[in-house]
Amino acid sequence: MVDPAPAWDPSLFEPVQRSSIQTGVARPSLSYWQDAWRRLRKNPQAVVSLAIVVALLVFTLFGPLVWRVDPNAPELTRVSKGPSLRVEARVLPELPPFKQETVPDVPARPEADGATLPAPERLEWIGEPTIEAVRMRWTPVPGAAGYLVYRSEEPPAGGYLGLPVGTIDGGNTVSFEDSFNLEDRAYYYSVVGQNVAESKQAITRRVVLPPGVSLADAQTIQPGAKPGDVVRFPLRPFGTDSLGRDLLARLMAGARVSLFIGFCAPLLSLAIGVLIGGIAGYMGGSVDQWLMRITDFVIALPFLLFMILFKVAFGAGPGQSGISAMLVALVVLSWTSAARLTRGQVLQLRESEFVQASRLLGARPVYLLLRHLLPNTLGVILVSFTFAIPGAIFTEAFLSFIGMGVAPPTPSWGSMCNDGVQTFLTHPHELLLPAFFISIAVLAFNLLGDGLRDALDPKLRSVE
Q1: Percentage of the chain with pLDDT > 90?
Q2: Among 232, 230, 250, 253, residue whose Cα is nearest residue 240
Q3: 19: alpha, beta or left, given left = phi > 0 and alpha = psi -120 to 50?
Q4: Which end of the chain is more exposed for a tag (fewer CB within 10 A), N or C?
Q5: What is the mean pLDDT of residues 71-84?
Q6: What is the pLDDT of residues 220-236, one digit of tens each?
Q7: CA distances from 219 to 20, 98, 242, 281 (A)
Q8: Average pLDDT over residues 300-305
């Protein structure tokens, strides 16, 4: 049995009111660069890296306007000082000339076995020990033909007494003055007797030197200062180097050199590489073959050897800054990767429909290359430029570290690392601070390059 047809219901076909229809575009249309910026902002690593890059540029360009300290001005009263926000020191009185103390009734016995000599019974200070000088005396050791004085920054252990700071000839001389490179810290002084051989018995005493400054140096900081006054040193938040120069000012000045090379060398080499690669990719044939063979030849050139030749050609001798030679060497030898990358992109685009349409409309090759082909490779070129910057920064740091780049007194992050490695064991901040800036700059540009590569890839454009 067949079911009857449903009854006609006119309400099922009532017209829809226009006000109930949703009009407008659900998602606004975005251009290529707008969509790339939107996706870049969704990458937290790229955003943080971009903020670090901006902070480095502000630190480099506007930092010297705020921190007006000469990066090459030495402050000999504060050599190799660590980072500090506020340092005060007492003005020390002028010390009288030091006179050796002798004991006339203790003759030396050359036949005595030096290894079995006892240690001095007592070691005491002459006056107040300061960073200007530590004066000491000890009781004589019978049979000693002389004495050795050691200084250590750690408690002596395992027979190690520290570095020898004084050799006393004559067993009757029982005093010594140490004024070599003293700092406001604790020291351990040890005295041993010797007679042919050095005694194995030593007397050790600890001394803590308070912060102090000589009267002449104090008056350069605070005119009219008198012994006993307390003077405040200028602010040095990053400390000073081995010559007493402000590290913060030198890091700012070094950033100008390092980032100048880091930006200019890739920019110039990229311009050369894009032009050569674009011509080779568009023209093809024998032009492409010749240009690519030249590119292969430049790739095979040893960079360090040509860096030395460029430095000689520019007349930069030993100890002279080779910024110009290094910049030219980086530009001449680093354009090859950009040329090969641009050539590959142009080879893909030159047979595209929009290029063929422009060619049919009478567009000249130069117009096609500059107006259509190269702008469409701009995303890849920008990513290549971002990756080339940390490479140039690291190359400058390496060349300056081995003495082939920026030479003192011109600061750069690489030359500062070269200076800091010599005092790393005692003052590590002189090496760690410029090394940190190099590392953070290279890491930030690499992560930003990764983010730009993902954001500018047309295949990853969102279809939301």
Answers
A1: 15
A2: 250
A3: alpha
A4: N
A5: 81
A6: 778 888 888 888 888 88
A7: 86, 24, 22, 70
A8: 82
Q: Under 8 Å CB-to-CB from 88, ≥6 apart: which residues?
A: 211, 230, 231, 232, 233
- Give the residue among 417, 61, 390, 397 at the shortest CA–CA distance from 247: 417
Measured distance CA(416)–CA(423) in Å, rounded: 11
Cβ distance 369 to 281 under 8 Å? no
Contact (Cβ atoms closer than 8 angstroms) between residue 177 and residue 99:
no
Q: What 3-state DSSP class applies to 118?
A: coil
Q: Output the pLDDT for position 463.
A: 45
CB atoms within 10 A of CB 194: 20
Which residues does residue 167 pair with via DSSP β-bridges, in sequence order?
A: 148
Q: Are 150 and 165 in contact (CB under 8 A)?
A: yes
Residue 374's Cα: distance from chain center in Å? 35
Measured over all CA atoms, what is the biggest interatomic distance in the chain, rounded to whole angstroms?
Answer: 145
Cβ contact 344:281 at 8 Å: yes
User: Within 13 A of 214's CA, how many CA atoms are on the CB side?
Assistant: 13
**What is the pLDDT at residue 424?**
85
Query: Can you list the alpha helix ranges (DSSP code H) found in 42-191?
Result: 44-61, 63-66
- Listed as own residue / partner, the contacts of 315-319 with beta carbons closer than 8 Å and 24 or more positions apart are 319/407, 319/408
Q: pLDDT digit string (tens) for 432-445? A: 999 999 999 989 98
Report the half-sphere exposure of 377 (CA within 13 A, side-chain side). Answer: 31
Lowest average pLDDT, out of 15-29, 69-83, 282-296, goes to: 15-29
Nearest by Cα to 456 from 346, 351, 378: 378
**Both tokens of residue 388?**
């080339």
N residues, the chain: 464
CB 176 within 8 A of CB 190: no
pLDDT at 252: 92
Nearest CA among 388, 380, 379, 382 for reference residue 262: 388
Amino acid identity for residue 452 in this structure: L
- The model carries a pTM of 0.74
Q: In whole numbers, what is the pLDDT of the chain averaged over residues?
A: 82
C-alpha separations of 369 from 111, 198, 352, 364, 426 in Å: 95, 83, 13, 9, 59
Cis omega (within 30 of 0) for bond into 375: no
Per-residue CA distances from 271 to 267, 329, 443 (Å): 6, 15, 24
As a whole number of angstroms, the distance between CA 288 and CA 346 comes to 12
In degrees, to the nearest 5, what angle opens at C-alpha 142 toward C-alphas 136 and 146?
55
Q: How many CB atoms sit inside 10 A of residue 340's CB? A: 18
